[in-house]
Each structure stands twice: as structure tokens, then as C-alpha cells.
Amino acid sequence: MMNIRSLFPKKLRLIVLFVVLTLLTQVGGIIWFAIRGIGRRFSQKWKIQLAINLVIYVMITLTIVPLLAQIGGRVAMPIFATSKTPVAPRSFLFVVFNRHYVKKDVREVVFRAARNLSAQYPKSVVHYLDGGFPFWDKFAMLPHLSHSGGEAIDLAFCYHKKGDPSKYKGSPSPIGYMIYERPKPNEYQPYRSKRSPLRWDLPFVQWMRMGRRVDRDRTRYLLRELLSDSRTKRVLLEVHLHRRWGIVHHKLRFQQLHAARHDDHLHLWVK
Ligand SMILES: [Zn+2]
Q: At which of 23, 40, 70 does a domain end?
């Protein structure tokens, strides 16, 4: 039987790991290769080595990377929501993957909108998704086409417990994406029946509602706060939701066919 290790020698595996980590996290590949020998000094067992290296990786990601990013003009979004800044990542993965960096104005627009939202609807938290990488405007952040400059961030819709609008909830998707507020048959759909490799329907995960419903009032309030900020350049949302939620604004747009869907999150662009 052919040995898988001989098919993929160690050097090739390391190169693949470096490329994958770099594409996902920008500096994760460099950090991992700088620290990967440390675990070996403490234990012969690979699981313990991996755990030690992961702890060191997370510590560097939370302490050194944000300091260096600031030099280049990018700030980290908060990791935990507080009463002063009710903003948090939908998943901690956005933080450990270094995908929560933006220019300062973007963070300020989100902070302002989140504070006003929680003043109007207590205990509401704005959950962010992908922002940008810590360094270098030209470095593409896949799968997004427009997050590389640090001027954009995705925000989850607001949700509440099914049948109880007073119980605020985060997105039913653990990463905030891919559970869609799909168009109803009678709603305007300019791209109905047209196909694009960037627009995925993912019907097999749409049942995952976790007893949550999108909170139209809170999401609409958040949207209006974002749109009313003079620093906001544009917000992207699928057109059937503009109409369903009754919002018309010159900064509120919908994406063209050859782009990701925006009926699971808002895309905020600040310039
Ligand atoms: Zn986006």
C-alpha cells in the first residue's frame, strides 16, 4: 500500500501549511514557523507540543500583532462586548485568524451605531464578522473582494429568540455567514435563476435557525445608524431586504451578480 507520507513529504506539507495559514490569517504562517520548535523543548508528545504552540500563537496574536498593526494605521476590533462598547466578534476565530483589523474610522462608526442601538434596545450587541488583516492594503482577504484596504467590515444582523422579541440573540450561524434571509417568491430578485460561482445558496444548512429569528426592528435601527454617519460611504444589503424592511437611502446599495450574497450580513464601507 502506498504510504501517504511518501506522497506528501515533510517539506511539501510544511509549505502547504504555510500557504494555507498565510491565506487565512496573513501573518499566522510566519508566526507559526517562528514558534513551532518551542513545544518540542517541553514535551515529546505531539498533542502537548501543539497545545503549547497554540497558546503562544494566541498570545502573540492578542498582544504583539495589534501593536505592530497600529503603526500601519489599523486597529483591532474589541474581543469582548462591554456596556461602553457593545461590540464583539460573532466568533473568536475572527480574532485568532487576525481578521478583525480595520482603520480607526471604521471602528468608530461601528462603536457609535452600537452604542445608540443598545441605548434604544438595551442588551443589544453588534456582532462583527470579517474586517481586514493587520497589514498591507494590497494583501487580498479571501473570499472577499473588497476588505483588503481596512475600510470595510461585515456585521451580522440582529436576532431574537423565536416568539420572544425581548430576548436578544446573535446570529444562528456560528460564524455569522451563510444562514440567509432568502427572498420570498413574490419579492424583487434581479438575479433570479442566474448563476454565479460567488453566490451560494447552501440549502443544506438553511434549517439551522437555532430557535432564532432575524430582529427586523433592531437590524433596521442599526442600519439607519450606520447610514446616518457621515463617515459611512456605503452599506451593502440584498435588494429584497431593502424593500422588506422599508429602507431607502442613497448609501444603501445591493451587490451585483458576481459577488457574495448579502442577505446574511451587512457590509459596511467607510472612507
Ligand atoms: Zn464584506
A: 70
**Total domains in the fold of the chain:** 2
Residue 65 and residue 79 share a domain: no
Cα-to-chain-centroid distance, residue 14: 27
Query: pLDDT tens across 232-267, in order?
Result: 999 999 989 999 999 999 999 887 666 677 889 999
C-alpha 175 to ligand 1 mean position (Å):
14
Whole-number Å distance, alpha carbon 1 to ligand 1 midpoint, is 46
Average pLDDT of the chain is 88
Q: 237: CA distance to ligand 1 center in Å? A: 10
* Gap from CA of 259 to ligand 1 centroid (Å): 10
Which CA distances in Å does 44 have to 9, 31, 48, 96?
A: 21, 21, 8, 26
- Residues 179, 250, single domain; the answer is yes
What one-letter code names the amino acid at 17? L
| Structural domain containing residue 18 | 4-70
